[in-house]
Amino acid sequence: MTSTALNITPTTDRVGALVTALGECPIWDPQRRRLWLLDCRVGHIHSIDLATGVGALQTVPAPAGSMALNRDGRLIVALKEEVVLLDPERGTLRSLGRIDDQHPNLRLNDGAAMPDGSFVVGTMHVFRDEGEAPLGGLYRLDPQGHFRRIAQGFGIVNGPVMHPWNGRLHVCDSAARSLYSYAMDADGSLHDSRLFAQTKALGSAPDGCCFDRDGGLWTALVHAGAIVRFDAEGGMTHRVNLPVAHPASLCFAGEALDQIVVTTISDSGRLRGSGPLDGAVLCVRDLGFQGAERPQCNITPKD
């Protein structure tokens, strides 16, 4: 299968036979040479071989929002209202923090490791009335295990990711179909908010994000069946159309970080796809780009 882009024509292959309801948060693990990903709706954490798609399964309480690798081999996982430390060998969970607000339509959503070893995660508050302010916000779990809210006002947080050069945090509000960037202080405080890009004209909200080594931000157009790249000024430079209805998230993977893995949706509860590859894990090759290395968490909470 092939996809077209503005000036590249990569090849898109399926990874194994896995079908996810809500495939999210792919993470390339260079130490284990494995791909990790979540099926959020059912609370499944998959660790698979990129070449064969064969792997292992862990289960956490559903719905799960996101996860990150911790340097000690454990996983940081965002559940519905709390962030936990998962020991994959023992299957044990330890609570590290809980969001301030509770509501039936509010839960933790996308999150990622930051270069300082912390974990930044945001919420999604759906089915709000017109003019109703969203609950929740953006939260940071610092390396010592302290959890606090660092921003508010997001309808659906996706793709928190740090620029590889300038240290600015990039965050999507999928409800607003916009991407923003912030300066982040050493304590996690945010300031200098800037609108980075908008995707309404592309017919979609932005979803998961990652950076390439050239500083380009890639995001999944979850309603438009494509992934796109933005340059440093927020201008779209490349678009790759995919053979699925709803791509959800993406990461660079492989030995040379020269492939993009895309997770997709078959039934998120709000979005559904019935095509032969909806819910599959896709690998986009021959892009002509290499990914920026992603950090891992270094959370060591005191007992």
Structure, explained:
- With 303 residues, this protein is mainly beta.
- The protein has a single domain, classed as 6 Propeller (Neuraminidase).
- Helix content is 0%, strand content 46%.
- The protein has strands at 11-14, 23-29, 34-39, 44-48, 55-59, 66-69, 75-78, 82-87, 92-98, 106-113, 119-125, 138-141, 147-151, 157-162, 168-173, 178-184, 190-198, 206-211, 217-221, 226-230, 236-241, 247-253, 259-264, 281-285.
- It has a four-stranded antiparallel β-sheet, with no helix packed on it. Strands 2-3-4-5 form a four-stranded antiparallel β-sheet, with no helix packed on it.
- A hairpin with a 4-residue loop joins strand 2 (23-29) and strand 3 (34-39).
- The radius of gyration is 17 Å and the shape is globular.
CATH class categorisation: Mainly Beta
- Supply Rg: 17 Å
Residue share in helix: under 10%
Mean pLDDT comes to: 94
Oligomer: single chain
Low-pLDDT ranges: 1-5
Report the order of strands and helices.
Answer: EEEEEEEEEEEEEEEEEEEEEEEE
Number of strands: 24
Structural class label:
mainly beta
The dominant shape is globular
Short summary of the structure?
The chain has 303 residues and is mainly β. The protein contains no helices and 24 strands. Strands 1-24-23-22 form a four-stranded antiparallel beta sheet, with no helix packed on it.
Can you tag this structure with a few keywords?
single chain, 303 residues, mainly beta, Neuraminidase, disordered N terminus
